[in-house]
Design a protein that fits this description.
With 392 residues, the protein is of the alpha/beta class. The protein has helices at 3-37, 40-45, 49-77, 92-109, 114-131, 151-158, 170-181, 204-208, 218-222, 235-239, 255-264, 283-293, 344-354; strands spanning 141-145, 162-167, 189-191, 211-213, 228-232, 268-274, 294-304, 316-322, 329-336, 358-368, 383-391. The mean pLDDT is 95. Bound molecules: S-adenosylmethionine. Residues 107-108, 145-148, 152, 166-169, 172, 234-235, 250, 274-276, 279 line the site of S-adenosylmethionine. InterPro entries: CARME, SAM-dependent_MTases_sf.
Length: 392
């Protein structure tokens, strides 16, 4: 691990450690102060409110304990020898992630979102059953980039495939490692994912609902098989081609990475992108990478919307071109990270006419939720997802 990787990891650990105070400061204290600021007359109009605030406080503490237990395991797994006082300080974005990850936990690891996960899983099962006999599946290599908290990886391993997840975010990697390798029993933990949102609740219970995770015991489900692995880093950096892609924060020009990309080329039979392709700031890099990592005849299966993550991002990043043999760089410049939000039609056109993919199945506008499994909330967002299977 490089020094900057260690610093980023520590910064993420620090953010999880800081969740308790951050969440109390951001969500609980302002409301407690507001309650105290009411006149006695108004306090008596809502006599249950003090008790409700106590419960919000308690729920934050439960969430914090979940993170703190994960952290005590993580410092061992990741061999962190510095004391928490020496860890790099988290940014506000790091802290916000410690909050949003609770929705991701619900999406991937709760019974409540089973129906949501099945939208893709049922389609995958049907395709796999018609394509790969069970007897050969352990030799079929599947890659799941943007694997999040690892649930889809587990589901695919359970179907018998040799499956590698890939994930960029240390927030995701730390929690997924805990869920995948922590030996947790089914429904062992309760988290309170909805306490960070105060609007749109039908009643107080709706906000205070606890969700049990994980809905399966990974150890029992996988029975100790050796088919699951996870890579840490940017998808294009690890699996992309050594040509056509510019050096940037997502794609490096070190001899090690060039070698790793060379090794990964044409190594996978299936790439499954689930709620992933719109995380690209250059979707052509993603298509290049999918094409590069697939064996001839391999399949790209996609499910998700085109809600480009960088669409409103005002930042610029430094890029440059480099010689893939010597590593010599040229054309260093600053480029906007937004601005290449290809439509579905564009993506299909490029993939088929320029990369030679053949579409073998396609559905558009499949409605799917994403981790907001609170049936008692009055707001409910759904995504219009595109699904396809293409053959290289
Ligand atoms: C919207 S989430 C989807 C997670 C999971 N596939 C699911 O369906 O729940 C997108 C994930 O992609 C990860 N990600 C974003 N850019 C990435 C990159 N360049 N390489 C690898 N992972 C990336 C994010 O950290 C995040 O975990």
């Amino acid at each position: 691990m490089t020094n900057s990787d260690s610093a980023a990891l520590e910064q993420t650990l620090s953010s999880f450690l800081g969740y308790r105070e951050y969440a109390l400061d951001t969500y609980w204290r302002p409301r407690f102060k507001r309650w105290q600021s009411l006149t006695e007359y108004q306090q008596q109009l809502i006599p249950w409110y003090a008790d409700y605030l106590d419960q919000v406080h308690e729920a934050v503490i439960c969430n914090a304990v979940f993170y703190e237990e994960m952290l005590s395991q993580a410092v061992i797994d990741w061999e962190i020898d510095k004391s928490p006082m020496q860890w790099s300080k988290p940014t506000i974005t790091d802290m916000e992630k410690t909050v949003s990850i609770f929705s991701q936990l619900v999406r991937e690891w709760s019974q409540e979102c089973n129906h949501e996960r099945l939208v893709l899983l049922k389609r995958l099962e049907s395709f796999f059953n018609s394509t790969y006999p069970k007897s050969i599946r352990s030799n079929v290599n599947v890659l799941v980039p943007g694997a999040g908290l690892g649930r889809l990886v587990v589901d695919i391993v359970k179907l018998g495939f040799n499956t590698e997840g890939n994930e960029l975010s240390y927030h995701m990697l730390l929690i997924s490692r805990y869920l995948l390798n922590g030996g947790l029993q089914k429904n062992q933990l309760t988290i309170y994912p909805f306490i960070h949102i105060f609007g749109n609740h039908l009643n107080r219970e709706s906000q205070l609902t606890g969700v049990n995770i994980p809905d399966v015991s990974v150890a029992d489900e996988l029975g100790g098989n050796n088919l699951m692995s996870m890579s840490a880093g940017s998808f294009v950096d690890i699996y992309g081609p050594n040509i056509h892609i510019k050096q940037s924060g997502y794609y490096s020009n070190t001899p090690e990475m060039r070698l790793q990309r060379g090794t990964n080329s044409k190594s996978k039979d299936v790439v499954i992108t689930c709620f992933f392709i719109d995380t690209a700031n250059n979707i052509l890099d993603y298509i290049e990478t999918i094409h590069n990592v697939l064996k001839p005849g391999g399949y790209w299966i996609n499910f998700g919307p085109l809600l480009y993550h960088f669409e409103n991002d005002v930042h610029e990043e430094q890029t440059c071109e480099f010689d893939s043999l010597t590593g010599a760089i040229s054309n260093v410049r600053l480029e906007p990270v937004k601005g290449l939000e290809l439509s579905l039609e564009d993506i299909l056109l490029v993939s088929t006419t320029k990369f030679g993919f053949i579409i073998i199945d396609q559905e558009i506008r499949i409605e799917s939720g994403y981790g907001k499994a609170n049936s008692r909330s009055t707001s409910d967002s759904k995504y219009q997802c595109n699904y396809w299977i293409m053959r290289k």
